[in-house]
Amino acid sequence: MYPMITLYKVTMMEYMTAQDAAEKWDISDRRVRMLCSQGKIPGAYKDGKSYQIPADAEKPADGRERPSGSTNEMRYLKWENVGQQNRPAAPLSHCPTLSPQ
C-alpha cells in the first residue's frame, strides 16, 4: 500500500496592527486595543503583546452613548451660569487687582 497523502488548502489571511487600524479608521490605537479586548472586532487576536486585526475588518460602530438630554447647548448654558455663581459676596478691597475701580 502506498501512504495516504492529504493536501490542505491553506489560505493566508492578511493582518494589520492596532496602529495600522487606528490610522485607517481615524481613531486612537488605544481605542482599537480596547475594541479588540472587548471582542468587538471579529477575527482579531492577541499575538504576544500586540493585536492582529484582519486587514479587511470594518470599523465597529461606536457603542458609547451620551446621557439622554445631553447636548452642546446645555453645556454652554451651564458654563454661562458658572461665572455668576462664583462671585464673591463681599468686595475685595484688600486685593487691589480685583477690587472695583
Summarize this structure briefly.
With 101 residues, the protein is of the alpha+beta class. It is 31% helix and 10% strand.
Jot down its keywords:
single chain, 101 residues, alpha+beta, 3-stranded antiparallel β-sheet, 3 helices
List the helices and strands and how they pair.
Elements: E1 15-16, H1 18-25, H2 29-37, E2 45-47, E3 50-54, H3 72-85
Antiparallel strand pairs: 1-3, 2-3
Description:
The chain is of the alpha+beta class and 101 residues long. It contains three helices and three strands. It has helices at 18-25, 29-37, 72-85, and strands at 15-16, 45-47, 50-54. The chain has a three-stranded antiparallel sheet with strand order 1-3-2. It is elongated, with a radius of gyration of 28 Å. It starts with 14 loop residues before the first strand and ends in a 16-residue tail after the last helix.
What is the number of beta strands? 3
Give the overall shape.
elongated
The helix fraction, in percent, is: 25-40%
Uncertain runs with pLDDT below 50, 5 residues or more? Answer: none
Largest sheet: 3 strands, antiparallel
Span from first to last CA?
109 Å
Query: What is the strand arrangement across the widest sheet?
Result: 1-3-2
Strand content: 5-15%
Mind telling me the C-alpha Rg?
A: 28 Å
Element order: H for helix, E for strand: EHHEEH
What structural class should be given to the helix and strand makeup?
alpha+beta
Round the mean pLDDT to the nearest integer and report it.
76
SS element count, helices? 3
